[in-house]
Amino acid sequence: MSKIYFPIIIAMAVAIGLLLGSKLNSSNQNNFLSKSSKRNKLNKLIDFIEREYVDEINTDSIVDLTVNGILENLDPHSVYISRNELQAVTESMKGDFVGIGVNFYMYKDTVAIIKTIKNGPSEKAGIKAGDRLLFADNHQLFNKKLQNDSLFSRLKGERGSTVVITLYRKETNQKLKIKVKRDVIPIKSVDVALKVSGDVGYIKINRFAETTYDEFHEGLMALKKQGIKKIIIDVRDNGGGYLEVAVQIADELLKDKELVVKTINKKGREDKTFATEKGYFEKGEVFVLINENSASASEILAGAIQDNDRGIVVGRRSFGKGLVQREMPLGDGSAVRLTVARYYTPSGRSIQKPYDDKAEGYFNEFEKRFQSGELYEADSIKVADSLKFKTKKGRIVYGGGGITPDVFVPFQAKHGEEATFMIMRSGIVSYFVFEQLDRDRKFFNSLTKEELQKEVTDTDKYLNAFKKYVSDSGILINYSQKEKILKYLYAEFVRQVFDENSYYEIILSEDAMIKKVLEIESEKIE
């Protein structure tokens, strides 16, 4: 909807087996027994609590707290994922799940369909936007405070299995029963691939999952057929994902044997990954868009393009995550995502920012960067002269905390407006538009895009309704940039009535970074 791992017990057992099967001197044995004794404290304490503690205690939750406590002493990216959270994380990174294919939210204690997934099971079965789901088989879905995981479990299932959905269609005042055959539902990691101007294409990547390379390649090939010769790759607000996938995408753009990334693990082993000869876009111009929330795999891609002088990185300094994690199951359905190496860009830069402060401030530097002026002035970006590196052609780049762009584009919201534009990109806009459409879908579905634009933007009717909606939600925002707010509202109406591509065409027409890229291109022509 328009809005995420080292088995300790097994590892210990393996270690014990290897140790006991070796010829050890007594000092090594004593050292091992000492460490083992300390580890056994945890097991003993939990056993004591289970057997003797006066009140009933969920010892599973105590174990979770203990694991989290241990990981808090490591780096900020070594984290524990509980059994309940792991399925959602796995599905997100796998890139699909089995379900009925709907975007929904709980509207007045009822599951309301915002949109069906194109060519998905629900659309094929005849479910429509605006429908309310009442029952999944015999399980009631309304007037209940259902948790999301409980609701999902009713709609998900085995591929090919069926579920009978009882729904209410407000538009025709009908109660219907529709049988839906569950199927694989993709979770898109490439939001859109479209032309933005002339021979310039645009691809937006929201994360690096198992399916991302295939999605990217498909979008790139479609754009090449449309005659694009330049590509904008947007990884703004992309927190990363699989390193290997970022490498695959970089390989489409770099020449054979160009270095993509280097990793070094605890033992000092150095692994270098190079591009191959298979790239499908090794000659066209490349632009990579980044911002303060572009991290990890996004920075690998941007760093590879920058250090090989393959293209231009546009935007604001990236997050600064140069640590590589591996997900390791703990045997009970939970997992730990453990940092196992550091990565370096082709010029040798480690872009991991300091993590002495592992609290909230590490993950949310927005306020700090705002206070320093970095979001508005390139000269305010602090770089360490001692961490100078050179690109393939000898340009100076810096390590020590994120990728500094080649072309800086300031944050567009003025002071006091930051929250407004975060809200305009959030789910609350989607819910507001759904409720407006829900008043008279027949009317809205009869409009062309031009007629819809006039309906939404020619008066303050929808702006005033949105103000009240937001205010009733307990949120205060700044409405000084009225035209931009109306454009976001219109774009969301278009997304729900028409399609995703049209939404992006509207939003990108006002995007400062896209404008900067097109400005760079026009200057070349002149």
Q: What is the CATH third-level topology name of the largest domain?
A: 2-enoyl-CoA Hydratase, Chain A, domain 1
Described by the principal axes of the CA atoms, the overall outline is: globular
Summed over residues and divided by their number, the pLDDT gives a mean of 87
Distance between the termini: 43 Å
CATH C-level name of the largest domain: Alpha Beta
Assigned CATH superfamily of the largest domain = 2-enoyl-CoA Hydratase, Chain A, domain 1
Helix content: 25-40%
The number of helical runs is: 19
Radius of gyration: 26 Å
Weakly predicted, low-confidence segments: 1-30
Largest sheet: 6 strands, antiparallel
Strand elements, count? 21
Structural class: alpha+beta
InterPro entries: ClpP/crotonase-like_dom_sf (IPR029045), PDZ (IPR001478), PDZ_sf (IPR036034), Peptidase_S41A (IPR004447), Tail-specific_protease (IPR005151)
Keywords: Hydrolase, Protease, Serine protease
Organism: Flavobacterium sediminilitoris
Family: Belongs to the peptidase S41A family.
Question: How would you describe this structure to a colleague?
Answer:
Belongs to the peptidase S41A family. This is S41 family peptidase. Pfam families: PDZ_2, Peptidase_S41. Keywords: Hydrolase, Protease, Serine protease. The chain has 526 residues and is an alpha+beta fold. It folds into four domains: 50 residues; 91 residues, Pdz3 Domain, CATH 2.30.42; 219 residues, 2-enoyl-CoA Hydratase, Chain A, domain 1 (Alpha-Beta Complex); 96 residues, no CATH class. It has 19 helices and 21 strands. The strands form five sheets. Strands 3, 4, 5, 6, 7 and 8 form a six-stranded antiparallel sheet that branches. A six-stranded mixed sheet has the order 10-11-12-15-16-21, with helices on both faces. A hairpin with a 2-residue loop joins β3 and β4. It is globular and about 70 Å long. The chain starts with 7 loop residues before the first helix and ends with a helix.
